[in-house]
Amino acid sequence: MPPTMTSPLSVSTAATPRATTTHLSIDGVSKRFGSFTALDNIALEIQEGEFVCFLGPSGCGKTTLLRTIAGLTRQSAGRLTQRGKDISMLPPQARDFGIVFQSYALFPNLTVFNNVAYGLRNRRVERARINDRVAELLALVNLTGSEAKYPAALSGGQQQRVALARALATEPGLLLLDEPLSALDARVRGHLRSQIKALQARLGVTTIMVTHDQEEALTMADRIVVMNHGVIEQVGTPAAIYHQPASAFVASFIGSMNFLEVTAQANRQALLGNTPCACLPHTIAVGQAAQLAIRPEAVALSLQARALKHQAGALNGEVVSIEFLGAFQRVTLRLPEDHQTLIADVPSRDSSKLSLYVGQLLAIHLPAEAARLYAAGSSQQ
Ligand SMILES: Nc1ncnc2c1ncn2[C@@H]1O[C@H](COP(=O)(O)OP(=O)(O)OP(=O)(O)O)[C@@H](O)[C@H]1O
């Protein structure tokens, strides 16, 4: 299985806020469409003020879960509680949330001012208060001065900022974001990502964002809910999801990962061909086929391969390609063990010491603390 290749990621290391009050509880929520199960017994608690991302591949059920929270889709089973109140059967208009969709969904025939004021007018808020609140919200999303413009006169990023202001206008307890950045080009997306994150931190509004973009989730979320085939695979901080993936699926979905075919051994070990490799504690039976997962940046390369070549327990490989990626070089090695391949990311400042070239034989070190064993054939993407 070739390793999943994506660019290196900056993982948000911000600690989960010390929020201890539950904002939203999802208890045993399932959703079936005919005989198809889109959500299977989902259980999740979201804390007051948290920024949570639902992350997963297309069709995993993340939008269905968001829509269920909003009341736009009715669950087939289970219960939703918001701030202690059972909202399971409430229609969307009786629930406390603001929502931003992927496509801007602004009213095209209303000005920016009137789009943002819409929810406030529906609630019969008095005119002077509406004027103040719209001014405050437009300042918050850096669109002061755009009050009289129509959506068609705004860029995609500006339209999404108006949509955000509109969603926040009535001060909802919960902000729902359904892939709000995916229709925007990369530069605007990056900029808006940090704006939304800063705004959320400033307002402290509990936020759930659906995304299929791992980088977005890793950089924005306090906690990530990784979903696959209608179930939650793992819930954790970005750092925990990245460094301690709970399943082969999570390991392969987030960041780049090598998967080597090995045989499980006792005492935190696995056999790669005949070469013993130390790894983290595992629960796979001795002698069972397994996958050893290790990130490319954790693989260490050195020059003593020839000396080690015939030494028991030494792992070496031949360089088959070198890609220059700026901050690091991505080196693909062929291992003598069953001709498997391994990717190593070598920081550019270290690569000169290795004088890398195709055909070179290098010693490989797989640090045990970065090597995780999963059952062979366990779900990847
Ligand atoms: N109204 C519906 N009727 C039938 N099937 C549906 C309906 N809505 C969603 N599904 C199915 O449920 C599954 C989950 O859909 P959902 O939209 O939640 O996925 P997703 O993870 O948000 O994916 P994407 O990123 O592609 O939007 C999909 O297989 C989808 O085809």
UniProtKB/TrEMBL annotation:
<keyword id="KW-1278">Translocase</keyword>
<protein>
    <submittedName>
        <fullName>Putative 2-aminoethylphosphonate ABC transporter ATP-binding protein</fullName>
    </submittedName>
</protein>
<dbReference type="GO" id="GO:0016887">
    <property type="term" value="F:ATP hydrolysis activity"/>
</dbReference>
<dbReference type="GO" id="GO:0005524">
    <property type="term" value="F:ATP binding"/>
</dbReference>
<dbReference type="InterPro" id="IPR013611">
    <property type="entry name" value="Transp-assoc_OB_typ2"/>
</dbReference>
<dbReference type="InterPro" id="IPR050093">
    <property type="entry name" value="ABC_SmlMolc_Importer"/>
</dbReference>
<keyword id="KW-0547">Nucleotide-binding</keyword>
<dbReference type="InterPro" id="IPR027417">
    <property type="entry name" value="P-loop_NTPase"/>
</dbReference>
<dbReference type="GO" id="GO:0022857">
    <property type="term" value="F:transmembrane transporter activity"/>
</dbReference>
<keyword id="KW-1003">Cell membrane</keyword>
<dbReference type="InterPro" id="IPR008995">
    <property type="entry name" value="Mo/tungstate-bd_C_term_dom"/>
</dbReference>
<keyword id="KW-0067">ATP-binding</keyword>
<keyword id="KW-0472">Membrane</keyword>
<dbReference type="Pfam" id="PF08402">
    <property type="entry name" value="TOBE_2"/>
</dbReference>
<dbReference type="InterPro" id="IPR017871">
    <property type="entry name" value="ABC_transporter-like_CS"/>
</dbReference>
<dbReference type="InterPro" id="IPR003593">
    <property type="entry name" value="AAA+_ATPase"/>
</dbReference>
<dbReference type="InterPro" id="IPR012340">
    <property type="entry name" value="NA-bd_OB-fold"/>
</dbReference>
<dbReference type="GO" id="GO:0015697">
    <property type="term" value="P:quaternary ammonium group transport"/>
</dbReference>
<keyword id="KW-0997">Cell inner membrane</keyword>
<dbReference type="GO" id="GO:0043190">
    <property type="term" value="C:ATP-binding cassette (ABC) transporter complex"/>
</dbReference>
<dbReference type="InterPro" id="IPR017666">
    <property type="entry name" value="AminoethylPonate_ABC_PhnT2"/>
</dbReference>
<feature type="domain" description="ABC transporter">
    <location>
        <begin position="24"/>
        <end position="254"/>
    </location>
</feature>
<dbReference type="InterPro" id="IPR003439">
    <property type="entry name" value="ABC_transporter-like_ATP-bd"/>
</dbReference>
<dbReference type="Pfam" id="PF00005">
    <property type="entry name" value="ABC_tran"/>
</dbReference>
<keyword id="KW-0813">Transport</keyword>
